[in-house]
Amino acid sequence: MTSSYQLNHSDHLLHVLFDEQQKSLHISDAAINSIAAQLNLPRAQVESVLEFYSFFHRDLRGRFDILFSNCTSCGDLELMHQLCERLHVEAGKTRADGLVSIDQTSCIGMCDQGASMLVNGLTITSLSGEIIDHMAGLIESETPISQWPATWFRIGNNIRKEGLLLASSFKPGAALKSMAKRSSDEILEEITASGLKGRGGAGFATGMKWQFCRDAQSDNRYVICNADEGEPGTFKDRILLNSHADAVFEGMTICGSVIGAKQGYLYLRGEYRYMLEPLKNTLQQRREEGLLGSDILGLGFDFDIEIVIGAGAYICGEESALIESIEEKPGIPRIRPPFPVTQGLWGKPTVVNNVETLVAAARIVLHGHHWFEASGTWQSKGSKLLSVSGDCARPGIYEYAFGTTVQKILDDAGAENVQAVQVGGPAGRLIAAKHFNHCIAFEDIATGGSFMIFDESRDLLEIIHNFARFFAHESCGFCTPCRVGTTLLKNGMHKLCGGHATAHDLDEMKCTAAMVSRRSHCGLGMTAPNPIRDGLNYFPHLFEARLLHQEMEPEFNLDASLEEARKLTHRDDAEAHL
Amino acid sequence: MSKLRVGTTSLAGCFGCHMSFLDMDERIVGLLEHIEFTRSPINDIKHCEPCDIGLIEGGLCNADNVHVLQEFRENCKILIAVGACAINGGVPAMRNHFTLKQCLEEAFIDGIGVDNPHIPNDVEIPLLLSKVHPIHEVVKVDYYLPGCPPPADAFVKILTDLLEGREPSLPNEMLHYD
């Protein structure tokens, strides 16, 4: 079978479902049937995709559908409750007149911009009590979103410290032009020699990944840029896509020429939908300048890029889940091996690289590997973009050479009385003050870029509880250890934070955490217990201080669980209580 | 050496685990040289006395289940959750997908052939919990004996281990059901 899969942007199932959700405010049974017929897909596939992604709904949502981030950095649920109160609507339920629905969503990548929300898929940042009151009026009067104050939708870059990648200017096409006199072997050698490792967090050697893909036997290959930046506290790709999109696309094009791919896909997280049009315009401009399309710059290779936009699923940041999502399926991670470099998109060898990795690759081709290796440490070459958020005076993007200490970053960001730092997001590491002398590097503290600061005023257990809720919500449900385990951990943290846990519960939580880490199918489950395990390791006193000193406390309130039966039977005798 | 005292009960279960226990057939004769039953449906004794081992079949669906379970926990040195319902809620927990109101209305009001439709409210009838729970959510459980039901061999193994002073451990073949 030859591979001639060509996705048309407007025919992608995720995009068709998004349009239907926007138009009809839900996806009806009739719509499922007509979409299945229109796209020539099985009805079951349409239904499973619709059920999987959190931005699609079978029940009617409001004409104003609002999602508040519940991230510890860009969320403020007090504001959600305020808006619910003003509009007389219950969170999670659509108002009876169909005007508005309000709910929560996981981190939307605006952690440097204050409390944030999505309204009909568009991002509003820097929320305040006054804005919420104003917004309630606009919603009540059904003022179209296009007439809402434009300043609400403004999203700053907040670049606080520029380094290797951000400081140097990049002219579209410069790296591609520099390839004219070099063979693809030489380009690959340049990438390999630079020591570039993947910036998404796992840190796989980029040159080796490209080499494996190139060496795999196949008639077709693909390049995918992973822009599903879902790790809470991460927003560096947002800045790169906003201000350095040419470098991202150029990195993809270079990769395509090296591995012999004709088609690339940028998988953009649904929360960044506001960037879709600008990115499409950049692609179009590059086509017009001969930097995409056939016979690029007369170098004799063809390459083009299509954008696929997600619909609210953290797991799609896992590369094989992302591939499933591009293939119009639920984002359930595949069993690996085979790895995507040999069997990826539509079974063809595929390179999946992080946005930042591709930007770095384009620069390395332009400036040479010596330029890149000069920064960083022996095992971690180059620089790392950090998304700094939380309790500090100057949240934003900081680019550091690898080997920079956590303390230096805290000082630069103006963070005081720091209790803990969550490096690499909830799936990363929770670090206590005694480890602030450690460095950001693959061999020390590895990170995909999230750097969340928590000062002494924060209840760290509530933070860990928030992360536990996040993983329970985002677990794809495919494997039992993760699906059930993340919920057990969430319940355990809920019990602890409510002051109902005993030493026995802590022991149970430790066992569950170890089981989830060890037995889960993919990285989500393997890392989901990290905040709890690090918390127990580095902040045991916080857990112990919250414990009840008794052998056992039930998981639920026994007497309250009889309340429903008491009402139904109109009983209130002694036997009707526990 | 005095015999180990064993109590057993079925809460929200089907007595299938007890039936499986009896599937050990003639081996029960040898076992009875080392154990004696206190409260159990096998001898129809209604209350628990202090004993060494308690075997609990079934989950918690009503207030009486909670009382019985608590009585067992207070009296048993070692408490074992026996079978899928005690460990996970099992079949009775399928009602957790519905509200209690829906369940009772379906059974006593809207059901086909219901005579004199009303929700029973006699004080003799234990009230139902809003959801069915596994027993470890209410008391500390020392060991788990999985299966629906656990095979007779597994009962023999866990009791023999305890009798001989070993940490109970079931081999893989007693944990596979396919």
How many β-strand runs of chain A? 14
Outline the biggest β-sheet of chain B: 5 strands, parallel
| Shape by Cα distribution of chain A | globular
Q: What is the CA-based Rg of chain B, rounded?
A: 18 Å
**Beta fraction of chain B:** 15-25%
This entry's quaternary arrangement is: heterodimer
The count of DSSP E runs of length 2 or more, i.e. the number of strands of chain B, is 7
CATH fold category name of the largest domain in chain A: Rossmann fold
Please name the CATH architecture of chain B. 3-Layer(aba) Sandwich
The class by helix and strand makeup of chain A works out as: alpha/beta
CATH homologous superfamily caption of the largest domain in chain A: NADH-ubiquinone oxidoreductase 51kDa subunit
Rg over alpha carbons of chain A = 25 Å
* Intertermini distance of chain B: 40 Å
Order of neighbouring strands in the sheet with most strands of chain B: 2-1-3-5-7
The sequence of SSEs of chain B as H and E is EHHEEEHEHHEEH
Low-confidence stretches of chain A: none
**Largest contact between chains:** A-B, 21 and 21 residues
Put simply, the count of helices of chain B is 6
Helix content of chain B: 25-40%
SS-based class of chain B: alpha/beta
Structure description:
The complex is a heterodimer of chains A (578) and B (178). By secondary structure, chain A is an alpha/beta fold. In chain A, the strands form three sheets. In chain A, strands 5-11-10-14-12-13 form a six-stranded mixed beta sheet. Chain A has a four-stranded mixed beta sheet with strand order 2-1-3-4, with helices on one face. Chain A has a four-stranded parallel beta sheet with strand order 8-7-6-9, sandwiched between helices. The termini of chain A are far apart. Chain A is globular, with a radius of gyration of 25 Å. Chain A is built from 23 helices and 14 strands. Chain B is elongated, with a radius of gyration of 18 Å. Chain B has one domain: NADH:ubiquinone oxidoreductase-like, 20kDa subunit (Rossmann fold, 3-Layer(aba) Sandwich), CATH 3.40.50. Helices cover 29% and strands 20% of the residues of chain B. Chain B is an alpha/beta fold. The termini of chain B are far apart. In chain B, the strands form two sheets. In chain B, strands 2-1-3-5-7 form a five-stranded parallel beta sheet, with helices on both faces. Chain B has a two-stranded antiparallel sheet with strand order 4-6. The chains are: A alpha/beta (578), B alpha/beta (178). Chains A and B meet through helix 23 of A and helix 5 and strand 6 of B.
